Amino acid sequence: MKRAIAFADRLAVPAVKLLAAINVLFLASFLLVAAIAAARAETPACTGKDMMAELSAENPALLAKIEQEASATLNGKGLLWRVETSGAAPSFLFGTMHMTDPRVTSLTPSAEQAFDRAGTVVIETTEILNQTEMMASLARNPDLMMFTDGTTLMSLFSPEDQKTLEKGLAQRGISLVAVAKMKPWMLSAMVALPACELARKAGGAPVLDVKLAEDAKADGKKLQGLETIADQLGAMASLPMALHLKGLVDTVKLGDRIDDVIETMIVLYVRGDTGTFWPLFRGIMPGTEEDQAGYAAFEQAMIVERNKTMIRNAEPILATGNAFIAVGALHLPGPEGLIELLRRRGHKVTAVH
Question: Residue 336 CB: number of other CB atoms within 10 A?
Answer without folding.
Answer: 16
